[in-house]
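Below sits the subject:

***
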Amino acid sequence: MPAVPALDLGPLHDLLSGRRVAVLTGAGISTDSGIPDYRSPDAPPRNPMTYQQFVGDPVFRQRYWARNHIGWRRMDASRPNAGHRALARLERAGVVTGLITQNVDLLHTKAGHRRVIDLHGSYLRVRCLACGAVISRFALADRLEAANPRFVDDLSLTGVEVAPDADAVIADTSSFRMVDCDRCGGMLKPDIVYFGESVPKDRVAAAFSMVDAADALVVAGSSLTVMSGLRFVRHAAKTGRPVVIINRGPTRGDELATLRVDSGCSPVLTALADSLTVAAVAS
């Protein structure tokens, strides 16, 4: 499996030129938008909350909602970077035929990408685990503001970091009041797939179909540590589709890659969009 220098994109262009491309993205594509990732070489250690912790321990749940109460607005204010825009441009040119993202930040949609599968859900939706009702994060924010009128005012938010799951890193959450479903009183949970939770089967099936409809798979900004993303790389390789991995540092799928570019996503995807859209127009 050859690795090419970030600035030598000739082999990457040659491999993908004339092919329909499916894309799988991870947290590394959003770092240039100010959202940190989990596992890049310079990322600090993180311990994301598990599904079992969220549903089984009210203290964990209180901590999550308090931190999310700060963090989700920071994520909502984030904007697509050059990597997101490059992929949207490749879709408009007919090169990228579909995109699967492990991110919950909606930045691909904000960039204008149309065929997106949000594999792990979205920060903008909240679901009741009892009755299944779905509400927007904006609606929940109003209820949480009413229940915690001084919570934000009492915090020093200067330099607060927001993790990839919209979880703001704040220490004291003991005073935060949670709210339940206003329809049935059930437990509310972000419509996000937590660690230890399964991706809905219909969403997984749609993602596999997206890979099958393409001639190649490009992975951008994912270490492929978790199986939810790695399975698509394994599937592409098993079915004879070339796999390209663009990521800073090693990934769990490197041995399956046809080509690997050890670099940040934005410059590589921008250069790739420049070359492949010109080729698509010329053809």
